[in-house]
Amino acid sequence: MKNNILFILSIPFLFTNCQNQPTSQEVTEDKDPLIQYLEENWQSPSDYVTSKFEAHDYVFVGEYHRVQHDVQLILDVIPKLHDKEIYNLGIEFADYRDQHLVDSLLVLEKFDRDLAREIMFKSSPDWGYKEYIDIYEVAWQVNQKAKEEGKPMFRVVNLMPHYDPCKEGGAWSEVDPDQHMADVIFKEFVEKDEKALIYSGNHHAFTKYHQPLYDFANDTLLGYQSKRMGNIIEDSLVGKTFNIYLHGAWRSANGWGEPMVRPVNGVIDSIMIQFENKPVGFDVVGTPFGELTSDDGYYIKGYPDFRLDQYCDGYVYTKPFKEYYFVEMEEGYIHEDNLDDLKHYLHCRNVPQELIDAFTVENANEELQEKAEDHFGNLMK
C-alpha cells in the first residue's frame, strides 16, 4: 500500500530520483571570489533573513516543501522579527477563510494545540506536519511575552484559498491561488502599511524571476508564468520586495522524470564544503554568487544566458543534502472524528478505493509520514 499511496499523493513540486553527485562544471576559477565574499559577509540564516527588512518591506522565503530545517529557520526567525518590530508572517500552508481562528488562537491564555491541528486539517487533511503547526505555537509564545511587555501582537496570516478536490470543475476552477495569496498580502499587510515575511513554496515566492512554461515532450518553450504571488507584489511595489531561496534540489533540464540536479551545477555545494557546511545566508544580486550559471537545471529554460541573480536575490544554505531530514506528522493528527473526512478527501484526489479503505487511525499517520520523506532520492545517500 505504501508505495502506491506515495505515488498517487505526490504533488507537482515533489520529485524523486535525484543525482548523487554534483555535475562536472569547472568551478575552480569561481571558488576564490565566492569564498572571499562569504568570509567578508558571513551571516547566520536567521540573522540574514531579518536583516533584509532594513531595506525592504516584503521578504519572500521560498522552500522546496517538507524539509525540516527550512521550517525550523522560520521558527527561529519569528521572535527575531518581533524584536525588530516586524509583526507579520504570511504562510501558504493554510486557508485564509480560517484567519479568524488563527487570530483568536494566537492571543489565548493557554495554547490550544487541538485548535491549531483543526486549522491545518480544515485546509489540508494530508498536511498534518508538526513543524508547520509549530509556527502557530511559536507565534503564540512570542505574544505571551509581548503581552507582558505591552508590545504589539505578532500575527500569522494564512494566505491560501481553500483547496477542495471535490469541487465540481476542479479545486482551482474559480480562483487562482497565486492571485488570491497576493490579494491577501495587499489586504492584510500593504494596505495597513505593515512589513511582512512571506513563507511559501519556492515557485509562489518568485518576485523578479518568471518561471518558464516548458513542453518537454516537444522541446518547446510555451512562455513564462509571470503572475506568481511574489511577481504580483513585486510588479506593484517595485523595489520593496526581496526573494530568498532556501537551498534545495532543482528539476532537471531534461524533464520531470529525470534525476534532479544540484543548483547551479553543484557549485554552492562545493563551496560550502570549504566552510564545513556551516549554515549561512548571503546575497546573490551584486555578488560573485549572482554570476553562477547552470546547464542542467529546468530554471534555465527560456534563459539562454541564465545567471543565479536572475533567479533569486538572496540564498540560505543550511546543510548538505545527505544530512536533510523531513518534517514529522503531528501526533494524533488523524483520529476517529476526522478519518472519514480524510478518506473523502483522498477519494476526490482519485486515490483507489482499496487504498482508502485500508486507512485506519493506527496507520494513517504512518502513511502520510512516508509521503513527507519521498524527496530527493539518491542525492541524500
Can you offer a commentary on this structure?
With 381 residues, the chain is of the alpha/beta class. It has a single domain (30-325), classed as Rossmann fold, CATH 3.40.50. It is built from 15 helices and 9 strands. Strand 5 (211-215) and strand 6 form a beta hairpin. The longest helix has 20 residues, at 130-149. It is globular. Helix 4 runs parallel beside helix 7. Mean pLDDT is 91; it is low at 1-28. Helix content is 39%, strand content 13%. The strands form 2 sheets. A 7-stranded mixed beta sheet has the order 3-2-4-1-7-9-8, with helices on both faces.
The CATH first-level class comes to: Alpha Beta
- Mean pLDDT, rounded to whole units? 91
How many distinct domains?
Answer: 1
Secondary-structure-based class equals: alpha/beta
Strand order of the largest sheet: 3-2-4-1-7-9-8
Based on the model shown, name its key terms.
7-stranded mixed sheet; alpha/beta; single chain; 13% strand; two-stranded antiparallel sheet; 381 residues; 9 strands; Rossmann fold
